[in-house]
Design a protein that fits this description.
By secondary structure, the protein is mainly alpha-helical. It is built from three helices and two strands. The chain has a two-stranded parallel sheet with strand order 1-2.
């Protein structure tokens, strides 16, 4: 989780991942997904300085024109979800006790 890292560790994680993707694929990463969805202003600022165009969190909500590009909300879909259950999830239906 980026908020728990020291400044040096944060820089290595953000810059290192960007450089690894570029080296391995030949393309520059434009967007970042915060590990575990956890972020703070320090992590957001590190991403901006590295050159990412934006990042997604696990904060619930919809993206609006006013949304911070480096703190975009998204819907967390459970791992291993079946096709029919995914269709229900996308339609806004959730089993009792499950968050988006």
């Amino acid at each position: 989780a980026l908020p728990r890292l020291s400044d040096d560790e944060l820089a290595e994680e953000v810059v290192g991942s960007w450089e690894t993707i570029r080296r391995e694929t030949g393309a520059a990463a434009e967007f970042f997904a915060y590990p575990y969805g956890r972020w703070d202003a320090r992590a957001r600022d590190a991403l901006r300085q590295t050159g990412y165009r934006g990042a997604v969190t696990l904060d619930p909500g919809l993206v609006t024109r006013e949304a911070d590009p480096w703190a975009l909300p998204r819907v967390n879909v459970p791992a291993g979800i079946s096709g029919p259950a995914f269709e229900c999830w996308c339609a806004g239906l959730r089993p009792a006790g499950r968050d988006a």
